[in-house]
Design goal:
Keywords: Membrane, Transmembrane, Transmembrane helix
Protein name: Multidrug resistance protein NorM
Subcellular location: Membrane
Helix content: over 70%
Family: Belongs to the multi antimicrobial extrusion (MATE) (TC 2.A.66.1) family.
Main location: membrane
Strand content: under 5%
Order of helices and strands: HHHHHHHHHHHHHHHHHH
Largest sheet: none
Distance between the termini: 29 Å
Number of strands: 0
Number of helices: 18
Shape: globular
Radius of gyration: 22 Å
Length: 450
């Protein structure tokens, strides 16, 4: 009994013995920023491949299909972010077995949900067509994309769990490697199948399916080998009811948050479709720029998740405060850089993405709106990371719902009055409310946590 207590004290001490420095932040943020940037790069390649066909309807169909896919899959992003927070806290406590258990619980959820989504692909496509209410050729392209890409559902969701475990451990380099494999295969096959072989939207979708499958196999092989050499995890530990309920509660809140986020983007895209096919296509191009800015900042949000979660697990208030300060400092610096790059080079990027002169002309008008999303959204990204790592999911959920209501009101007021300018202004309102609402309650949560 005495030896067990000593072991627990030693494990806890090991979990607490860490410091938060610029180097520790950058060790996670830099590789994951590079990793996340491959995702919007993939979106740009997808858009560019279809854009080379010179048909705005196909470009709009790809954008609408990608949106419907994101509504389905990003709602399950808790399998990444929730796993990161729980693994980071287990690491902070020095509980190696719980790290394994969290991963396998996430994989079980991923397998069940993935199979269900793959089976429901035709119904999801029909629902997407009904919601978007776009012209027939746009709807046809969207349905093709959704039906094929949803076949990758089990692989995609398992990859979320794999990445969540890796990031919870603070292993940014391994996370970068896995994302490079996934998106590298996807980009190469997208060009080959979509452009060289002329498969168009279907080729883009099949490229995604293949990339997700290969990345899943590699990730499971790496983690499985690690677990094989680690202490054996009792099966009952994975199926522990209280732990599962805690994960499901956390996942429920993150799912509501993620669904609310994508509902806002869905309303944004739908409103753009009401302004016409060319405006829809132009907004699709600009949203890729918004994603570039977002993924550019996600590396530091991930650093906030891991470091804040580990600090909460170790009950280390000083490390928690330092993680918040440093990730916010670096986040604002990179947000300003991203905005400047897009303002100076956005027009040249548009020329690479689409050959449609009509789409290019509309994109040039609204480019500044997309460029400044980095600065208006940086606080929201960073605060999300802190709250996910600390597993304060209820606060994050509530503030997202509040932000969605404010966004909906802004959309109803600004879009009719100012057209597409009003649409983009409403998006900025949404991002600002998300960030400042979470910041307002952070101090209260810190007092109760430590």
């Amino acid at each position: 009994m005495g030896k067990r207590i000593l072991d627990q004290v030693s494990a806890a001490a090991n979990g607490r013995s860490f410091v938060v420095t610029n180097r520790s932040v950058l060790a996670i943020a830099v590789p994951m920023t590079l990793a996340y940037l491959t995702t919007p790069l993939l979106g740009i390649v997808d858009t560019a491949v279809v854009g080379q066909l010179g048909d705005a309807a196909l470009l709009g169909g790809l954008a609408a299909g990608a949106l419907v896919f994101d509504v389905v899959f990003t709602s399950f992003n808790f399998l990444r972010s929730g796993t990161t927070g729980l693994v980071a806290q287990a690491l902070g406590r020095g509980d190696e077995l719980e790290e394994q258990a969290v991963f396998w619980r996430a994989v079980l959820i991923a397998v069940v949900a993935g199979i269900v989504f793959a089976a429901l692909a035709p119904l999801v496509a029909i629902a997407g067509q009904w919601f978007m209410s776009a012209e027939p050729r746009v709807s046809e392209a969207m349905a093709v994309y959704i039906r094929i890409r949803l076949l990758a559902a089990p692989f995609s969701l398992i990859n979320y769990a794999i990445l969540g475990y890796v990031l919870g451990r603070g292993e940014g380099g391994l996370g970068l490697m896995l994302q490079l494999v996934l998106n590298g295969i996807n980009i190469a096959l997208c060009i080959l199948l979509g452009l060289e072989l002329g498969w168009g939207v279907a080729g883009v979708a099949w490229a995604t399916v293949t990339g997700e499958f290969v990345a899943m196999l590699l990730g499971l092989a790496i983690i499985g080998r690690r677990f094989w050499a680690a202490p054996r995890l009792p099966r009952h530990r994975i199926l522990d009811l209280s732990a599962f309920l805690r994960m499901m509660s956390l996942n429920r809140d993150i799912m509501i948050r993620s669904f609310s986020l994508l509902a806002a983007f869905a309303l944004f895209t739908r409103q753009g479709a009401q302004f016409g096919t060319v405006t829809l296509a132009a907004n699709a191009v600009l949203m890729n720029f918004f994603l570039i800015a977002g993924y550019f900042l996600d590396g530091f949000a991930t650093a906030a998740e891991q470091l804040a979660g580990r600090a909460v697990g170790a009950r280390a208030a000083m490390q928690f405060r330092q993680a918040v300060r440093l990730t916010l400092f670096w986040g604002f610096g990179l947000a300003a850089t991203a905005t400047l790059v897009l303002l100076l080079g956005g027009t040249d990027l548009v020329a690479l993405i689409t050959t449609s002169e009509d789409v290019r002309a509309v994109v040039d008008i609204y480019l500044p709106w997309a460029a400044f999303t980095a600065l208006s959204g940086v606080l929201a990204f960073q605060m999300d990371g802190v709250f996910i790592g600390a597993t304060w999911s209820r606060d994050m959920r509530n503030m997202m719902l509040l932000s969605f209501l404010v966004f909906s009101a802004a959309l109803l007021i600004l879009a009719p009055a100012f057209g597409n300018h009003g649409l983009w202004a409403a998006l900025h309102v949404f991002l600002l409310v998300r960030g400042f609402s979470l910041l307002a309650i952070l101090r209260v949560r810190m007092r109760t946590a430590f």
